[in-house]
């Protein structure tokens, strides 16, 4: 994870905790090899590359490769990590209201223009010019 992303995340976690939301990192930077393993697991689970690609980026195409993306969970509700039910947690509610102040945005909200499955746990840092440039195309589709 890039230094400025980590610093912003740490500050966000500390401020969330003061508000009673306990945000934890679930997954940050991922290399192409690890993403390949995760994608292969999804192919095995879903039965095809096409169905796997609806829920997992193929290797070389994940925001996690950039060092600016992070999957976020709720420390009090670990069963919701990387699950749709994360959106029912205090951490998700806090993130929705406050994450932009720290430079974070939900990568794939409901009905996103990229056509990517909704992932309430997947956030990206766009708080620096370098990070904003990385995601400029995706943000302006």
TrEMBL record:
One Pfam family hit: VanY
UniProt xrefs under InterPro entries: DD-CPase-like (IPR052179), VanY-like_core_dom (IPR003709), VanY/YodJ_core_dom (IPR058193), Zn_M74/Hedgehog-like (IPR009045)
Cross-referenced SUPFAM superfamilies: Hedgehog/DD-peptidase
Domain of life, per lineage: Bacteria
GO terms under biological process: proteolysis
CDD domains, A to Z: LD-carboxypeptidase
Residue ranges annotated for the D-alanyl-D-alanine carboxypeptidase-like core domain, each copy included: 1-127
A GO molecular-function annotation: peptidase activity
PANTHER family: D-ALANYL-D-ALANINE CARBOXYPEPTIDASE (PTHR34385), PEPTIDOGLYCAN L-ALANYL-D-GLUTAMATE ENDOPEPTIDASE CWLK (PTHR34385:SF1)
Protein's name in the database: M15 family metallopeptidase
Organism (species): Romeriopsis navalis LEGE 11480
């Amino acid at each position: 994870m890039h230094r400025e992303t980590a610093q912003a995340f740490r500050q966000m976690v500390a401020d969330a905790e003061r508000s009673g939301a306990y945000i934890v990192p679930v997954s940050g930077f991922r290399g192409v090899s690890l993403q390949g393993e995760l994608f292969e697991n999804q192919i095995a689970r879903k039965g095809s590359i096409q169905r796997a690609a609806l829920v997992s980026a193929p290797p070389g195409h994940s925001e996690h490769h950039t060092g600016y993306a992070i999957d976020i969970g709720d420390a009090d509700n670990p069963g919701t990590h990387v699950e749709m039910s994360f959106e029912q947690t205090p951490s998700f509610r806090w993130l929705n209201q406050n994450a932009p102040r720290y430079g974070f945005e939900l990568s794939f909200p409901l009905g996103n223009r990229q056509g990517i499955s909704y992932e309430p746990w997947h956030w990206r840092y766009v708080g620096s010019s370098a990070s904003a440039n990385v995601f400029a195309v995706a943000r302006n589709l």
